[in-house]
Amino acid sequence: MLTIEGLRSRYGRIEVLHGIDLRVDSGEIVTVVGANGAGKTTLLRCLSGVQPVTGGAITFRGETLTPVPAYRRLRRGLAHSPEGRQIFTNLSVEENLRLGAFLFSDARVEKDMDDAFQMFPVLKQKRNLAAGGLSGGQQQMLAMARALMGRPSCLLLDEPSMGLAPIIVAQIFDVVSGLKALGVTVLLVEQNAFGALKIADRGYVMETGCITMQGDASELIADPRIRAAYLGI
Ligand code: ATP
């Protein structure tokens, strides 16, 4: 579904992605794990088109994505739930969700909203409240639900566990796991390597702008190097 070949990106003169090769097949959950600053967020920003690419190629559902502007990529089926959530704090929960559906004006928007509320019941309780008043976990749920309102075939998910209590992280990872059954392919970027690898089919390890390991998630969890470097075991 998504193929990345030799992807390079830079901030000013500093190159931070040094030729990334990565593949996500339809229906998979693929995770990219790595320490703070490895380049994971930059990778997702290149995929959604908000960060310029300086080399390599991105192919999504058989089409070259590189020349497609960011605002057109959702229409192609690629949605981004960004680092830091980036919700509209002055707007209500419902208004945030409706913005996620900006491409659509059909009756299915209401059904999609019901589905989002079923996925995250707490958002239904708070649908008319300002999103800025939500807890961190609820804001993360809103960011994911808003991305899903765009009816993506592939969701780019940046650090959904960041700063959240373990019980909320478990809930969020459960929902990510469940997206498969809804036909949504997921590329999940995480510092929480254990949590991410537990729900993923395959994983990649990123270190200072390069992919250093890759494999089935179960193999990566069992790998002594990963256990020592990322799982604290
Ligand atoms: P984190 O988990 O903190 O988001 P990450 O793996 O996602 O880390 P990136 O945020 O992609 O890493 O950062 C990769 C490198 O690019 C880091 O060295 C970072 O300092 C640098 N960087 C990120 N954003 C910018 C920016 N806007 N301007 C300059 N350098 C940046």
TrEMBL record:
Belongs to the ABC transporter superfamily. GO terms for molecular function: ATP binding; ATP hydrolysis activity; branched-chain amino acid transmembrane transporter activity. It holds the Pfam family ABC_tran. The keyword Signal does not apply. GO terms for biological process: L-amino acid transport. Residues 2-233 form the ABC transporter domain. This is Amino acid/amide ABC transporter ATP-binding protein 2, HAAT family. It comes from Paracoccus alkenifer. The keyword Transport applies. SMART domains: AAA (SM00382). Keywords: Amino-acid transport, ATP-binding, Nucleotide-binding, Transport.
